[in-house]
């Protein structure tokens, strides 16, 4: 009998090739079994998950991601399908919000951003990889880094005092961040900068920096404060 799915590895994650003729419930069980039995092999990673072979409705999307995350230490941050790239948090039906492809409103950098490089975007900015210490990201919208962010990150640079933007990375290891007109390195914000910028263990959820009520905060994508951004 033909397998319900196949897996292939990429630099930034996994490609899940689904058998369109397989029962979706059987496929979910097979995914659970595969990741549970090979938990150590897959490791603890934030990944880009590429889906091929069949169309999934929102509930099936959620079931596939949960099958992976609940049976391994892998955390899916970006999903790619035939319609483009999507943030996992945007896949849910939050207040009836329509799923929107990242590729429609983001500049995508499909590799590491190395020292000395500056990447600018008049939209949001998605880096599929790491950002090194002496690299700079500047975006009119949000900044998303699937790996380690060690360089400078400027989100919402055209927005003046509009702070409805965020900076996300699998791990944030920098204190050089700005959202709108507000900068973590400014002397006026020194106290709050020291509060959010600290040595952190690698978390399963990744790190999010937002500006809220006149100060910067670092949290995770599972925090209600972050999720509320998608309800506006």
Structure description:
The protein starts with a strand and ends in a 5-residue tail after the last helix. The longest helix has 14 residues, at 24-37. Helix 1 (24-37) packs parallel to helix 3. The strands form 3 sheets. Strands 6-8-10-12-15-16 form a 6-stranded mixed beta sheet. The protein contains 6 helices and 16 strands. The protein is α/β, with parallel strands linked by helices and 232 residues long. The radius of gyration is 18 Å and the shape is elongated. The protein has helices spanning 24-37, 39-42, 58-69, 88-91, 190-196, 224-227, and strands at 5-9, 13-18, 46-52, 75-81, 84-87, 106-109, 118-121, 124-127, 136-139, 143-149, 152-155, 166-172, 177-179, 182-183, 207-212, 215-219. The model is unreliable at 93-99 and 197-202 (pLDDT under 50).
Q: Give the termini distance in whole angstroms.
A: 47 Å
What is the number of strand segments?
16
Spatial extent as radius of gyration: 18 Å
- Give the number of helices: 6
Hey, roughly how much beta strand do the residues contain? 25-35%
Measured as a percent range, the helix fraction is 10-25%
Mean pLDDT score, rounded? Answer: 81
Question: How do the strands of the widest beta sheet line up side by side?
Answer: 6-8-10-12-15-16
Task: Tell me the overall shape.
Answer: elongated
Query: Low-confidence runs (pLDDT<50, min 5 residues)?
Result: 93-99, 197-202
What series of H and E elements makes up the topology?
A: EEHHEHEEHEEEEEEEEEHEEH
Secondary-structure content class:
alpha/beta
- Major sheet: 6 strands, mixed
């Amino acid at each position: 009998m033909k397998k319900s799915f196949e897996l292939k590895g990429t630099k930034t994650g996994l490609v899940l090739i689904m058998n369109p003729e397989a029962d979706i419930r059987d496929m979910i069980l097979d995914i659970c079994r595969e990741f549970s039995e090979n938990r150590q092999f897959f490791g603890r990673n934030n990944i880009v998950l590429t889906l091929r072979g069949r169309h999934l409705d929102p509930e099936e999307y959620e079931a596939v991601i949960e099958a992976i995350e609940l049976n391994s230490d892998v955390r899916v941050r970006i999903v790619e399908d035939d319609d483009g790239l999507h943030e996992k948090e945007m896949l849910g039906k939050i207040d009836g919000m329509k799923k929107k492809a990242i590729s429609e409103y983001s500049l995508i950098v499909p590799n590491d951003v190395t020292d000395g490089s500056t990447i600018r975007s008049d939209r949001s900015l998605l880096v599929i990889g790491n950002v090194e210490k002496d690299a700079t990201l500047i975006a009119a919208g949000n900044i998303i880094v699937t790996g380690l962010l060690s360089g400078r990150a400027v989100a919402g640079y055209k927005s003046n005092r509009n702070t409805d933007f965020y900076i996300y990375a699998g791990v944030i290891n920098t204190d050089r961040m700005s959202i709108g007109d507000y900068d973590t390195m400014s002397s006026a914000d020194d106290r709050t900068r020291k509060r959010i910028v600290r040595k952190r263990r690698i978390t399963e959820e990744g790190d999010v920096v937002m500006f809220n009520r006149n100060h910067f905060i670092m949290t995770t994508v599972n925090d209600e404060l972050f999720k509320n951004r998608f309800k506006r």
